[in-house]
């Protein structure tokens, strides 16, 4: 992608300044894209050229222990470009979007050598649980270690490059967290139990019908959702269940109680969000790496799934599961979930190529669907500039071109950036439209195997390893069943 791809003004801007445009050190770059598009490589290139560090926006990479299934940076990649918010919680911690947003805001402020009122409050908040305090101390030390590793002075600002594909994390960071009442623990647990089967089957319509059954007000609220927003749908159900709890507790026609219920419902969607990046005065530049050929990109997604298996996904999942160290979040994530289902399948037998191929089909299908969802999600987010990735080019060329294009855009003054990048006839707008238009043709996509082909030595080797892992998991299950039977 040449520098003229976005605007002729880009060339002038890039010549006038070799560093990011903002001299008040408040620039934050947010970078995302579908699975396997090359986000981390592009981010690393930007960091190398602009004295930056990566802030991971990946819900699975935050957990210790997982590696292959989380596609974590290798130790070598970490030394080259340190990543913040990777390996920050153990398998027993429930790390959610709210916790991540809080940590990400702190990291960004510290990288830019700034403080926020929230950071100040956290530093002196004695009510924080011990685990959160320890995590914050670890994150602070990671930042210091990263700066020293790269030779950056402790007190000087570093460009935060937020990178990842977890949509909810990025939505909360860029737009702020939703302003809604906190549901009861019972409502949260029940809503999760109810919604989990719908989400696993991707039965959006069924889930919507269930939530709508709780009353007209909730049915109406669902119409305001953007796309298949499972999080907000579950939050709607949580509030509905809270109201239901209060109705069951109500023993008389208490007008005050009824008013409290009405207020609670009204707070379900206030339309307000708080603590967005922009609310802290940051100059936020958000980019979505968009493949120009969805067929070619989808083939890359399929191959990546196979590579993860050949690298040892089955062995990693088995070892973590047997040790009781597989986080619940990871166990539900694409890759680990399908692997666990395969290892724990009923009637497992050795050298079962059909079962293995079905496992691989489920893995690749789920990954493709997630990639599609990422594209749909960010096409509706008006904060993100779509950067075209020419799939016919070699990977190194794709990375270099994308990094160059983004660097040109972050050098632009803010008003010029908005004028160039968000115009109706901009490259971003065209890329977005092309991406959506190609969706119709994806129904003709035909997958193929790249490494684990029938009759190959590579497949035979993978099957042998898979059998060994399956035997261990099945033996553990039988042991647990015997223990339970013994107790009875």
TrEMBL record:
The keyword DNA damage does not apply. SUPFAM superfamilies: P-loop containing nucleoside triphosphate hydrolases. Belongs to the IPP transferase family. One of its GO terms (biological process) is tRNA modification. Its cofactor is Mg(2+). Its EC number is 2.5.1.75. Residues 12-21 have a biased composition (Basic and acidic residues). Keywords: ATP-binding, Magnesium, Nucleotide-binding, Transferase, tRNA processing. Signal peptide: none annotated. Residues 1-25 are annotated as: Disordered. It comes from Seminavis robusta. Pfam families: IPPT (PF01715). GO terms for molecular function: ATP binding; tRNA dimethylallyltransferase activity. InterPro entries: Dimethylallyltransferase, IPT, P-loop_NTPase. It catalyses: adenosine(37) in tRNA + dimethylallyl diphosphate = N(6)-dimethylallyladenosine(37) in tRNA + diphosphate. Residues 1-11 have a biased composition (Polar residues). It is an enzyme of class 2 (transferase). This is tRNA dimethylallyltransferase. The keyword Cell inner membrane does not apply.
């Amino acid at each position: 992608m040449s520098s003229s791809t976005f605007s002729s003004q880009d060339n002038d801007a890039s010549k006038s300044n070799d560093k990011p445009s903002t001299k008040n050190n408040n620039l934050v770059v947010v970078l995302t894209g579908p699975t396997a598009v090359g986000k981390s490589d592009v981010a690393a290139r930007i960091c190398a050229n602009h004295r930056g560090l990566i802030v991971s926006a990946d819900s699975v990479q935050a957990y210790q222990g997982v590696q292959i299934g989380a596609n974590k940076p290798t130790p070598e990649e970490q030394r080259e470009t340190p990543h913040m918010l990777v390996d920050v919680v153990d398998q027993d911690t429930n790390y959610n979007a709210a916790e991540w947003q809080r940590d990400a805001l702190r990291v960004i402020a510290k990288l830019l050598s700034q403080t926020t009122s929230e950071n100040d409050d956290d530093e002196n908040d004695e009510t924080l649980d011990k685990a959160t305090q320890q995590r914050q101390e670890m994150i602070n030390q990671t930042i210091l270690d990263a700066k020293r590793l790269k030779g950056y002075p402790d007190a000087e600002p570093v460009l935060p490059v937020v990178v990842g594909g977890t949509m909810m994390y990025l939505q909360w960071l860029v737009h702020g967290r939703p302003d809604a009442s906190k549901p009861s623990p019972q409502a949260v647990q029940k809503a999760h139990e109810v919604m989990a089967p719908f989400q696993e089957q991707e039965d959006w319509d069924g889930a919507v019908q269930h939530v709508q059954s709780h009353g007209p007000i909730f049915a109406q609220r669902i119409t305001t959702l953007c796309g298949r927003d499972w999080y907000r749908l579950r939050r709607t159900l949580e509030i509905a269940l809270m109201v239901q709890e209060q109705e069951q507790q109500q023993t008389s026609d208490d007008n005050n109680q009824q008013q409290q219920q009405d207020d609670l419902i009204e707070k379900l969607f206030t339309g307000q969000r708080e603590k967005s990046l922009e609310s802290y005065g940051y100059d936020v530049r958000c980019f979505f790496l968009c493949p120009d050929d969805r067929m070619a990109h989808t083939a890359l997604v399929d191959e990546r799934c196979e590579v993860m298996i050949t690298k040892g996904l089955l062995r990693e999942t088995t070892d973590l599961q047997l040790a009781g160290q597989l986080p619940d979040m990871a166990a539900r994530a694409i890759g680990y979930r399908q692997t666990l289902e395969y290892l724990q399948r009923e009637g497992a037998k050795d050298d079962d190529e059909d079962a293995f191929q079905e496992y691989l089909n489920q893995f690749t299908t789920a990954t493709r669907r997630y990639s599609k969802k990422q594209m749909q999600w960010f096409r509706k987010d008006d904060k993100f500039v779509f950067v075209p990735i020419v799939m016919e080019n070699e990977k190194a060329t794709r990375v270099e071109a994308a990094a160059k294009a983004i660097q040109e855009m972050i050098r632009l003054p803010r008003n010029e950036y908005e004028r160039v990048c968000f115009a109706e006839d901009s490259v971003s707008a065209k890329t977005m439209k092309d991406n959506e238009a190609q969706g119709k043709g994806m129904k003709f996509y035909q997958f193929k195997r790249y490494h684990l082909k029938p009759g190959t030595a590579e497949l035979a080797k993978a099957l042998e390893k898979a059998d060994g892992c399956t035997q261990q998991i099945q033996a553990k299950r039988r042991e647990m069943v015997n223990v339970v039977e013994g107790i009875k």
